[in-house]
Amino acid sequence: MPRFTSPKGGEDASSHHLYVANCGPAVGFSHETIASVFGMYGEVEGVYAADESGTRVIVSYHDKSSSQAAMKALNRHPCSSLGGRTLHIQYSVQSLGKVNNTASVPVSTSASDLDIPGLYLMHDFVTPQEEQELLAAVDDRSWYHLAKRRVQHYGYEFCYDIRNVNTNQYLGELPSFMSPVLQRIRSFQALSRAADMSLDQLTASGVNEYPPGVGLSPHVDTHSAFDELIFSLSLAGPCIMEFRKYTTGVWQGNSTSSSDLENQISGLNFVKKAIYLPPRSLLLMSGEARYAWHHYIPHHKVDKVNDSLIRRSARRVSFTIRKVRRGPCRCEFPEYCDSQK
Fold it and tell me: Of these four, 3, 96, 292, 327, which has the most CB atoms within 10 Å of its CB?
């Protein structure tokens, strides 16, 4: 896939290529759909992922006049053909050099190999029979449809637009099918800190279903929304989860409609690590892993683990179990903390 970058000083401000933020597979629009929309302004040679977020693309035209027409018509305007989303567009140029941090990274199968403080992975946390029972339980209930996946909320509903919960909207206790999982978390000695949690107040803030090729954009779970320990139980299919810690500037990754989208990936350097999450495994993010590392699922259909290529299953369901925070966050990572800014 070609690589692109922003025009440098002295270069023509316009080009054949447009960097388009606020659209892409992660928000429900395929590259084919985007090409069709932008094709109204001229011949589109290709649509490419701008990065791994799934929310930004490069649209390449055959000629510069077409990109100029699209820029004039679509930049900072709601696009009815793309769900009314306001697009943020810049000109881009094809890069012949290497792009920082785009190379693939080795994938670990153990959390200890990543050396991220507070990250733990427990294989076979539930049995195959329990996995089937959990899947049957959620499939017996109604799903809420997002652009590219379906979700269910228990305890409190998670609001994706503000990345927080409404504590005034209590949905009731966690369902009984979660009891064995919660009990096992309490009794697992390696998680002695979890035993101090009032697990009856935990929120399963989403049962997320990811079809092949659909991932999760980089983010840190909002500090003020949830307490320190965040658990993610993977069912039905495997995936790769990647972690980023930014070393130049801080990107919270929570903006979806602001002009800040244009600068989110400019001037940022980061350390990048990856872990393989097999079915029936439980991931715990705590401490630094929870508060300071962005986590995300790349938008891949095939993952490379060591020397093996693993095709994603037709379905992956994750149970994310968190405790709603009462009061502001007082963590040791104020640069990432919305309560301490």
Answer: 292
Q: What is the widest separation between alpha-carbon atoms in the chain?
A: 65
| Rg of the chain on CA atoms, in Å | 21
What confidence category does residue 41 fall into, taking pLDDT thresholds of 50, 70 and 90?
A: very high
User: Phi/psi of residue 70, each to 5°?
Assistant: -65, -40
Residue pair 91/51 in contact (Cβ under 8 Å)? The answer is: no
- Three-state secondary structure call for residue 177: helix
Per the CB < 8 A criterion, the answer to whether 107 and 276 are in contact is yes
Q: Say if residues 42 and 63 touch (Cβ distance below 8 Å).
A: yes
pLDDT band at 53 (very low <50, low <70, confident <90, very high): low
Q: How far is CA 329 from CA 1, 90, 192, 225, 243, in A?
A: 42, 36, 22, 8, 22
Give, for 72, the enclosing helix (H) or strand (E): helix 64-74
- Show the domains of the chain with their CATH numbers: 3-95 (3.30.70.330), 107-336 (2.60.120.1520)
Q: How far is CA 124 from CA 18, 188, 202, 327, in A?
A: 45, 13, 22, 35
The amino acid occupying position 288 is E
Q: Cα–Cα distance between 298 and 273 in angstroms, integer?
A: 12
pLDDT (tens digit, 9 = 90+) per residue, 289-329? 999 999 988 777 777 787 777 777 777 888 988 888 888 99
Beta strands 144-145 and 317-323, pairing class: unpaired
